[in-house]
Please model this.
Amino acid sequence: MIQTIIPNLHRVFTNMGSTTRMHELKAFDETKAGVKGLVDEGIVKIPTLFHHPPDKFSNSTNSTNTEHIIPVIDFTNTRQDIISKIKEASETWGFFQVVNHGIPLNVLEDMKDGVVRFFEQETEVKKEMYTRDWTRPLVYNSNFDLYTSPALNWRDTFKCNIAPNAPKPEELPVVCRDIVLEYGAHVEKLGVTLFELLSEALGLNPNHLKDMDCSKWIMLLGHYYPACPEPELTMGTTKHSDGSFLTVLLQDHIGGLQILHEDAWIDVPPIREALVVNIGDLLQLVTNDRFKSVEHRVVANTIGPRVSIACFLRGQEKLYGPIKELLSKDNPSKYRETTFTDYVAYYAAKGLDGSSTLQHFKI
Model:
């Protein structure tokens, strides 16, 4: 009798716990004020919804380990030098920074300022834009995976698509509309250049990846990470890899971005005029593991707000599998073909739970 009661009690308490958690998630969501709303209230203890378990990997800083410095590639160098460095970085790190990339410094600064202006509008103004309807021209909320992730991240986000069909100006908030459209156009142009260089780094025709529509769709996310009173208990962004072909990231001077390299967390130091570029899961898939999509995270800290702008270069609705020109008898296909929609659907349903999406598509 006791043996049957104990499992039943366990189920009752588990259900009570999940019910309480769901109630808390809905209550947070319904404030429509996000993490910034909590900070504006003056909280000194963060809600348990944001508590993360300790990470099993060690921390490392660039100040003490000169071997672990993310490559910085200067686009004023010769094309062959650039291709060589991109090839090495994509195969080894999965991350690199680019300088002299053609986007003016004033545009980069204005884009960061635009994100700050958006999130520091009056709460009542922002509430009108708060939604989980991803079909809207602009989506503002906190934690896209609010109801599926094991723990919430200490950040708020707005999202809009900038290619192939950029939003109409009137569909974007006045506080950032002009700079979002201007910056988006620059990233679209830079994306073409990056995929040409990556194609050549694979020994392919410069147009190979572009002709696969790897950068046909570009989604821009503006992230706002408020100062956190208990940064040791939470994360700005949980460990994950990106569900894109390529990600172009603009980060501010505060820092906090880290990549997992040789079982240690390595800082990606902010460089004022640089853009961070990282390989996404789909590029690892189509290159059959030649280029690496590396897990990364953003730590929370007491300094803030930190802002970053991530542009995800993503594909069209077609089948993607390992590029045939890269396969051989000794290097057979490691992944099954998938559509971009199916990949993203699995990625979104799984949420940022710290596990790799790529494993689901391995043969």
About this structure: Residues 74 and 163 are 26 Å apart (CA to CA). The two ends are 46 Å apart (CA to CA). Residues 1-16 have pLDDT under 50 and may be disordered. The longest helix spans residues 2-31.
